[in-house]
Specification:
Mean pLDDT of chain B: 88
Oligomer: heterodimer
Strand content of chain A: over 45%
Distance between the termini of chain A: 35 Å
Structural class of chain B: mainly beta
Helix content of chain B: under 10%
Shape of chain A: globular
Distance between the termini of chain B: 41 Å
Radius of gyration of chain A: 13 Å
Strand content of chain B: over 45%
Order of helices and strands of chain A: EEEEEEEEEEE
Number of strands of chain B: 11
Chain lengths: ~110, ~120
């Protein structure tokens, strides 16, 4: 039972480098999300995709871009990494139509920007 | 707008003692409410959820939470703490219910409460 799979699990970047975090879910969910988690700040939504073909900004979208490649996959791109983007990133998916829409999370991607 | 406040960023209990983690929400419409747990170096997993079917909700590992509309609260409890309960706990709310009873929108999370259990 894979659920939500994120890659890579760990990454170290230098300031100004770019990278893409990949996320895939096998639960046939319509909605997918990217959060970042920082100590004392809980989880903050970066971007989300309510359904295939749509994406919307969350609370902290600056410095990030996303692509909903298909129903299964939702990637997060850092075009020019900054030390402030050092964080743990979580991808999640849910099915919100007709129900409470609880999120199912991946195991996280730890990113360090030097 | 919806919001969640978790009272106490750190809670410490002895093994076998009652666990009480507090959560208050703000919502202009009936909410869906959730508690998640995060063990070290792992993702978040769902403990329990409130969907308006019953005000007292039971979850995994003997956790339960009671929805109190008058107090806008959804506190998490466990009668007897175990060492394995040590983790960070997040309360979350979803509202933005659309027409026809369907819901849409995003989960808003509280800041988290770190639970420490002493032997």
């Amino acid at each position: 039972n894979a659920g939500v799979t994120q890659t890579p699990k760990f990454q170290v970047l230098k300031t100004g480098q770019s990278m893409t975090l990949q996320c895939a879910q096998d639960m046939n969910h319509n909605s997918m999300y990217w959060y970042r988690q920082d100590p004392g700040m809980g989880l903050r939504l970066i971007y989300y995709s309510a359904s295939e073909g749509t994406t919307d900004k969350g609370e902290v979208p600056n410095g990030y871009n996303v692509s909903r490649l298909n129903k299964r996959e939702f990637s997060l791109r850092l075009e020019s990494a900054a030390p402030s983007q050092t964080s743990v990133y979580f991808c999640a998916s849910s099915e919100i139509r007709g129900g409470p829409g609880e999120l199912f999370f991946g195991e996280g991607s730890r990113l360090t920007v030097l | 707008a919806q919001s969640v406040t978790q009272l106490g960023s750190h809670v410490s209990v002895s093994e076998g003692a009652l666990v009480l983690l507090r959560c208050n929400y703000s919502s202009s419409v009936p909410p869906y409410l959730f508690w998640y747990v995060q063990y070290p170096n792992q993702g978040l997993q769902l403990l329990l959820k409130y969907t308006s079917a019953a005000t007292l909700v039971k979850g995994i590992n003997d956790f339960e939470a009671e929805f109190k509309k008058s107090e806008t609260s959804f506190h998490l409890t466990k009668p007897s703490a175990h060492m394995s309960d040590a983790a960070e706990y997040f309360c979350a709310v979803r509202t933005n219910r659309g027409a026809g009873g369907t819901s849409y929108g995003k989960l808003t999370f509280g800041q988290g409460t770190i639970l420490t259990v002493h032997p």
